[in-house]
Amino acid sequence: MSPWWAVATYVVTVFTAGGLVRLLDPAAASDAPSLLWLAPALAAGVTWLIGRRALAIMLPGPVSRRQLVAHTILGVGAAIVLLVLVAIGLAFVPHRDAPSAVVPILLAAVPLAVAFELGWRGVLQPLVESRIGRLWASVGVGVVWAAWRLEVDETSTLLGTIVTSIALSVLLGYLGNGSWWQRWITAGVVQAIVSVGLVLLAGVDHTGGASLVVAGASVVTAAIWLVMFRVAQRRRAARAAAAA
C-alpha cells in the first residue's frame, strides 16, 4: 500500500495550517515556541482522520520498552551536546539574551515541542521511511520542514533554516524507532529540551550569527550521533554473522 497519499495530505495540511496560524497571529515564529508549532500536530490529525485504517497498516510496529528508553536517553545526550556547542558558539557572536518574561515561554515550550514532533517524526518520518530508507527519509523530511519554516516565517534565515532543519531531522530520524507514538515520545523529549535550552541561551530570535551557530551545532551533533548509530549497526551485524 503506497504511503504517498498520506504524505501529500500531511504536507498540504501543514502548510495550510501554518498559513492560517500566521493570519491569526502574525507575530508567530517557527524557530521559537508559538502557535505555529501546533500546525504539524493538526496536519497529523487530519491525515489520520482521512485514512486511519490504512495508516494503521502502513505505520511501523512498536519496539521493546528497553529500546525506547535507550534511544530516548541517547536523544537527551544529543540535546545536551547540541546546547553546549551552541553556548560555546554564542560566546563569539552577538545575540539577543533571553527575554525578561521567559517563564511563560518556557512553560509553553514543552507542550508545544511535543505537539510539534507528533507530525514530523510521529507521522511523516515513518511514512516516507517505509519507501526510501531512513537516511533519505530524514533528509526529505528535513527539506519539507525547512520549506515550511521559510514559508510561514519571513524572519527565518535561508541558510541557517535549511541546514538546521535537515541536520536535526537526520538526528531525530535516527533516534526515533518503533511505532508512531514511540518515535513521538523520543523526538518530543529531545525537541522540548532543545527548545527550552535555545530560549535560555539565545532568546527567541535565532537570526543572524545565532542562526549559523545553531546550524553548525546541529550538524556536528547529527554527524556524531550518525557515526555512533552506524558503528552500532556494524557491531550488531558482526555479532549476528559470528553467531550464525
UniProtKB/TrEMBL annotation:
<feature type="transmembrane region" description="Helical">
    <location>
        <begin position="156"/>
        <end position="177"/>
    </location>
</feature>
<keyword id="KW-1133">Transmembrane helix</keyword>
<keyword id="KW-0812">Transmembrane</keyword>
<feature type="transmembrane region" description="Helical">
    <location>
        <begin position="132"/>
        <end position="150"/>
    </location>
</feature>
<feature type="transmembrane region" description="Helical">
    <location>
        <begin position="68"/>
        <end position="92"/>
    </location>
</feature>
<protein>
    <submittedName>
        <fullName>Uncharacterized protein</fullName>
    </submittedName>
</protein>
<keyword id="KW-0472">Membrane</keyword>
<feature type="transmembrane region" description="Helical">
    <location>
        <begin position="7"/>
        <end position="24"/>
    </location>
</feature>
<feature type="transmembrane region" description="Helical">
    <location>
        <begin position="184"/>
        <end position="204"/>
    </location>
</feature>
<feature type="transmembrane region" description="Helical">
    <location>
        <begin position="98"/>
        <end position="120"/>
    </location>
</feature>
<feature type="transmembrane region" description="Helical">
    <location>
        <begin position="210"/>
        <end position="229"/>
    </location>
</feature>
<feature type="transmembrane region" description="Helical">
    <location>
        <begin position="36"/>
        <end position="56"/>
    </location>
</feature>
